[in-house]
Amino acid sequence: MIQISGLTFDYPGHRALNQLNLSVERGSVTALVGANGAGKTTLMRCIAGLETPLSGSIAVAGLDVQEEPRAVHRQMGYLSDFFGLYQDLTVAQCLEYAAASQGLAKEAIAAAIHDTAQRLSLQDRLKQKTSSLSRGLRQRVAIGQAIIHSPQVLLLDEPASGLDPEARNELAILFRQLQTSGMTLLVSSHILAELEAYSSHMLVLKDGKILEHRALSNSPHSSRALQLSLASPNPRLAEILAAHSKVLLSKTQDHHAEFDFSGSSDEQAQLLAELIQAGLAISSFGEQNLQQAYLRTIASKEAK
Ligand SMILES: Nc1ncnc2c1ncn2[C@@H]1O[C@H](COP(=O)(O)OP(=O)(O)OP(=O)(O)O)[C@@H](O)[C@H]1O
């Protein structure tokens, strides 16, 4: 859905993106992660056609972002990390304005406002001015503005920053619904536990380069990143695991191991049974969370 080739972007005196190549699958939800200054916002702004790269190309739904920005914008919603809402407009007026500026036909606008308000549970707020809304509700209005034209691709830069856990959870549910409806999402955040709730892929940026781009276990095609801890150390842990054909070890100590497992859930259960049978005193066994996977990537890989 998004194809990026050889993308390089410079701010005066600073290379923010360096020769990025990337392909984002249709219908995926990609968690865009990386330290402050890694280039996440710049990448989103380039995909949204808001910045002109030094070199390289970006295509969204088969359309070149530089050559056909307006056509791309019809397929895309973008929520910037610092968004503003018109304080004196009601929620309905904000959505109407967004619909009109996205070029929706006059007769389609009322239905678009109705559908979007329903999707975001804003039906009861339509007549309320945005200045009187809580931060969580304002965030939802901003997302509503970004999806009013039913885009195929949605870019969200730090959508959950400043939200309380309940509002974050509501956003996670919304993003899953948008994905189910066929939308492709690219979401940046520093809160990995939140991204984990709905992401199918993880894209790690470091110093303007891609450190890793891979499917997470939510994705049907992926291998799982598993970890295992022992109640008492066993020097044969690595050897026993490595003997299994679907295990790819990434880190082992006498009492702990992290590895990718390419088998099914049944095969994972079988692996656990075999390890117990081999005499390992297993105290925990399961999937690594996104934070652990991210930290592992940062620790183990040099930028490509
Ligand atoms: N307008 C600008 N002029 C010069 N340098 C900039 C400008 N905007 C960003 N940068 C630099 O480009 C790099 C990438 O910035 P970017 O905002 O894309 O990172 P980020 O990953 O989104 O960071 P954060 O997590 O803090 O939002 C940083 O080193 C930043 O200081």
Automatic annotation (TrEMBL):
Protein biosynthesis found in the keyword field: no
ABC transporter domain ranges (all copies): 2-232
InterPro entries membership: AAA+_ATPase, ABC_transporter-like_ATP-bd, P-loop_NTPase
SUPFAM superfamilies in alphabetical order: P-loop containing nucleoside triphosphate hydrolases
Key words of the record: ATP-binding, Cell membrane, Membrane, Nucleotide-binding, Transport
PROSITE patterns per the UniProt record, alphabetical: ABC_TRANSPORTER_2 (PS50893)
GO molecular function terms noted in the UniProt entry: ATP binding; ATP hydrolysis activity
Record Gene3D superfamilies: P-loop containing nucleotide triphosphate hydrolases
Family in the record: Belongs to the ABC transporter superfamily.
Descriptive protein name: ABC-2 type transport system ATP-binding protein
Origin species: Iodobacter fluviatilis
